[in-house]
Queue: 2 jobs
Job 1
Amino acid sequence: MLKFPIYMDYHATTPMDPRVLDAMMPYFTEKFGNAASRNHSFGWEAEEAVEKARKQVADLIGATPKEIIFTSGATESNNLAIKGVAEMYAERGNHIITAATEHKATLDTCKRLEKHGYRVTYLPVQPTGLIDLDQLRQAITDKTILISIMYANNEIGVVQNIREIGRLAKEKGVLFHTDAVQAVGKIPVNVIQDNIDLLSLSGHKIYGPKGVGALYVRRKNPRVQLTAQMDGGGHERGMRSGTLNVPGIVGLGEACAICQKEMPEESARLRELRDRLKDRLLANLDEVYINGTMESRLPHNLNMSFAFVEGESLLMGINDVAVSSGSACTSATLEPSYVLKALGAGDDLAHSSIRFGLGRFTTEEEVDYVANKVIEVVKKLRELSPLYEMYKEGVDLSKVQWTTH
Amino acid sequence: MAYSQKVLDHYNNPRNVGSLDKSDPNVGTGMVGAPECGDVMKLQVKVNPQTGIIEDAKFKTFGCGSAIASSSLATEMLKGKTVEEALAIKNTELVNELSLPPVKVHCSILAEDAIKAAIADYKRKQAAREAVVAQAQ
């Protein structure tokens, strides 16, 4: 039986896995201790739970527990990584390299640093969504202290060539941070093999709780240092003060352990469902474009543009399905998705885009329902679309004199 | 964003969708907006040249639900009006009727522009025809 509305926006957030909630529950009530209380059993119990979680997080990404710093989420992790490195290594250089398609938590952190005298290179991406490694190589100067490139993109699911980026950074003696929020728990991530120095992850993207995340900070080859961005009790090896969110951390740990155990099976299942959705849409509609490469992509992501149909009106028509659109009309700024614009596909296709994010609780029945519904609504809206009519008449829309407003 | 009942009604049951013959001298066509801005409206009126009354109106819109609703409502309002009355339609009437929020006011402005463009096109055609008739005499 289908239950409505259907949730297909797993890149935005995920529901908690019931097993995660079960693991967390005792730490709200009877096991409520402060992990920093060193002189009684309440504190020891909380500390033990935190250390277990720290190992669960570390294991998922091939790190050691001491390299995991708990935070409030990936936005904080990105801020701490980028600002912390910038401040700590200011004497060595003032140049940071990132990419145009990064999350705002990275881009806006970099913009703030620019106001404080740092220089930032925002690498463009290719139509595939991938950065060009030669361009990255050329962007590195003797002032470069940090490269921050996301592992997988939150809109188009494109997975960057992290291993090569990490290798290049290492070769040049530059630190490498990756925002791996969308990748961790979904595809294999290993900080050693991938040559990652700092990595941000988040609980609520992997069926854990909101309000908790982690930053991996490498301790060997090289030993990465950070300037703390918040003053206080010196928790988390002095890098992140503040009483630990024990239930949240326990939940994050459990979420990581479940992902590690179930990833091979889960990712294969989701890839199959995602491809089923993609194939149905492509087979039943003309003028549909996939945004970003399918060659290097998260198994549960699909981002498509339905030409001649505006994204928000499409969302209105499929209002029993929760997905998101890169259309300007769905954003507060009335600007279409900067990620899709960076692919160079044209604003019109950005306005026509839908992001489908499948996840642990997505069923085949749901995928079929969504596919059929999207096909029906796109066809209906194209009947209404003057652009589709012109396209069918053979008008080249790029040559029309539009009255921009 | 929550849509008003009237926007939903026009989105689900758009009125007067379609196209009129562009080459008909009694048909005026207005096309406003741009694909890269996320809105394009095509609005057409068919005018009785004897009475100056709009006998038919059609639209096609690429845009959000509020843009579709604004143009759908505009075609309803146009029918039965004289050309001069149609030119007096203000976007605020659409805003009020559809309860559009501030971020969607531009949709109503676009619909008003489309009405004006369609009527301008009709008047241009009529003037051209009169010129031809005058020349023939």
Note: The longest helix of chain B spans residues 105-136.
Job 2
Amino acid sequence: MTVPEYTGEDYDVIVVGAGHAGSEAALAAARMGQKTMLITLNLEMVAFMPCNPSVGGPAKGIVVREVDALGGQMGKNIDATYIQMRMLNTGKGPAVRALRAQADKNAYHRVMKDTLENTPNLTLRQGMATDLIVEDGECRGIVTNTGARYRAKSVVLTAGTSSRGKIIIGELMYSSGPNNSIPSIELSENLEKLGFKLRRFKTGTPPRVNGNTIDYDQTQEEPGDKTPNAFSFTTKDADYLQDQMSCWMTYTNEETHKIIRANLKRAPMFSGVIKGVGPRYCPSIEDKVVRFADKPRHQIFLEPEGRDTSEYYVGDFSTSMPEEIQQKMLHTVAGLQHAKMMRPGYAIEYDVIEPWQLTHTLETKHVKNLFTAGQMNGTSGYEEAAGQGIIAGINAALRAQGKPGFRLGRDEAYIGVMIDDLVTKGTNEPYRLLTSRAEYRLVLRHDNADLRLTEKGRALGLIDDDRYAAFEAKKQAIEAEMARLHSIRIKPGKEVDDFLASKGGAPLKDGILASDFLKRPEVSYEDLAQFMPDHPAVDRRVIEQVTIQIKYAGYIAKEQQKIDRLHRLEAKKIPDHIDYNAINGIATEARQKLTKIQPETIAQAGRISGVNPADVAILSVYIEQGKIAKVG
Amino acid sequence: MANSITAYDTIAAISTPPGEGGISIVRLSGDEAIQIAQRVFKGKDLAKVASHTINYGHIIDPTNQDVVDEVMVSVMRAPKTYTREDVIEINCHGGIVDTNRILQLLLSHGARMAEPGEFTKRAFLNGRIDLTQAESVMDLIRAKTDKAMQVAVDQLDGSLSHLIKHLRQDIFSVLGQEEVNIDYPEYEMDEVTGKMMLEKATEVRDHLQQLMKTANQGKILREGLATAIIGRPNVGKSSLLNYLLHEDKAIVTDVAGTTRDTLEEYVNVRGVPLKLVDTAGIHHTMDKVEKIGVERSRKALSQADLVLLVLDASAPLQSDDRELLKATKDKKRIILLNKTDLPAQIRPANLEAVVTDDTLIIPVSILKTDGLDRLEAAIAKLFFDEGIENSQSNVLVTNARQYGLLAQAKTALDDVITGLQNDVPLDLVQIDMTTAWEKMGEVVGENAPDELITQLFSQFCLGK
């Protein structure tokens, strides 16, 4: 029986799906003054964490700070709901330090839902989008399963793993979104009808156990940090959580591996049941045991899921083995011998839209005013989703306002690296950000995300006056301190020489600038401070910036040179809708790839695999000459 | 993540065909052309001279301040140049050896070896040539740029490519581990320490240095070991030359030289190709113009990889002899005590006071072809034993592209080493380590995009 349709309210922007991408998208659009609706399958699953209860880590943590600097919510939300905070890679250099928090997953959901409910211009609604209203190649709204037709100037889809989701546990397979939620079937079908190319990906989650049944004595405690840190620029040190919860580490062993090997034929990953492509960086435990057969044990992290629950996430133990086997596997692990499994791990297959069908603004090339973000674009991870969500939301709002799009470059943000990778190369597995994907990671640090992006957020209307004032004050303090260190001279003398000798450094011959003194590897800012007269109190975040900018100036300059080169190539725009067939001399493979990807700049064209320097050269010639053959 | 687009970096190449005319030109084009030239130029400050001027000076090797050649440098600033970029042309005295050395100096000071046709390519990329002209050469670029890489890779000596792959794997063993440590800090993995990285970087750097030395031998195999026969008048230089030329050893004769008004002649001594430099000088001295003897020898010296210094053993050592002995002190040389058929005034022992190093001294009678076997054996030994075989595994770097890339890799490793010695954090040093790995990958054609990430996942067990 068909449900009769009715006309719902009109919006500027509609966002479908209230996960980590959708929440950011809707908030950004609403905050930019657009009348926005956020529609999702189940309001109890707003900003839900279906996998590990944590936010941040290498690369990902930097994305959270980038989202925050653009005026997004993820940083604030995790700062309000974490139960443990740790700075990772502290022994390494500034470029790769990363903040990671364990989240109280229920609180995380509640606080985000509360924020959405209380944001002006934003309507949060439960419902299922089944179709898009597309007229003249433009998306003009959505249709829901209850028959509502909502019209909008632009639409953002963030359907996540719900798209024709299928859960697999051993021999059991059923249609489902994450954590037994209802899947979205019709929307996928209608996207295919519109001509979008979809593909199947697979991801998985480990079992959860009751924390009361873990023998912690057999595990190793992993506590949080005492030194305050936060994701958001706006969070105060004074609010740092003292009473943190620990994680616990244990290992698989030969017994665990024996059970896995004995039951591989029942593992859907190996029996051929799972067709979707899984991520290499997030393999299931059975995958690890098979691929790295010589490793006698694998690490497992037991992570609390929150304060008001006893559920523990068994990290690094992702599996889609039959439930019965999962229990047996768990019971071989030190500390889990008597653990009660509360939810089995599962694999989930879902549809993704091949991301090369998008532009850098995350708008689809095929249907105007339609944007997609998050796991639906082939990524994995809450942070990757949030990073895309805010960009899609910003651009949906800009489109609704009739303004040009907003994009971030590879040299500006990890978000820029991620989106460029997706739209330029596509992805053959769920895409996770890694620091090794960023060629300019020394300038894309977590500590300078605010300096990189706050002004952009401000220009978009996403940074309020108070915060902007605080940001400008910080910026000025950094400049002032830099100028000061470049003007004060440190004179040689017994005190200085004794200090240098104690650090194994050479004595000073002449007086040198404080900045040059700080450049010495053995000298920290605090060391320098004691030799400067009238040293004023300087904020630790200012000290951090000044230290990095001075100590690593040579490396930063080297990276900046590469960035300058990138900029020149990016300045060479490729006009829309080029007919690549009309350009002589381009190799066939390159012609096909260029036609498919439709790169926007010469720089991007050069990053497409299969497009060689010769093809780029020839393309450049045509563009330089302004004699471009256009399609139609 | 190697960017396949290299446009706008500074490229260098020898732009005159070898063997044509007395002057060779090494050309640089790109933003850094002037700075790079300045790094190896002694003369006016090229950054300050007016555009389109020619400037006299010397090319020096900054590592040891050796003067490589006396040159004229043309400075042409963008946009009124062939490529519409800053262009430098170094006019040198020719001689493939010196010209190549200048090119190699530029390559190790920031320039990249130009691909075939790349100057022309830049010219029309920068809009200097119109589309019609461009189209007509497009097939050419297509053919050249696509194939250049493959050809270069194909030309690779099997053992060179094997060695480089091996060295890359050495780098990756710490590079990959460190990347994994950065991206997966909570995992128990072997920590990469600065010491480990320093050891690897030093080890690989030293290998590269060795390899780069072989560039000379590779060049020698193709172009001949530049050999100067010197000595004061009438000691037997011309007899030696004639001996070498007439014993069916001459492979090329009377090639109009690339040096100024000199002749080069090629002979093959027991498999070692010798390029005899300034044979004209020797011929001249045969005529009657005696006074130029020593002066001339000095010039020949500067171009030589090997010096055959001829002394007349039947006469006491003269001041000219002493001067030549002194002038050849730092060269690879063999001293010939000629005229053993006459009563000896100099014996090898007499030379001990003036020749303090282990220079080979061979008594010969060129007239009676006596002792010349020993000379031939000595040349072969010098070349094969102390040359190729000493440099590990017979690996040769044979072209300037390989050399340029290896030079860049070596510079990156030098930066790694300096960084580590200055306690720079590993992940910063890692930037240079990655550059070295990528440049070496380019030599063997292995630098696919995302190679690092693919390698990481295939070699490490990662995951949440």
Note: Chain B has a mean pLDDT of 74.
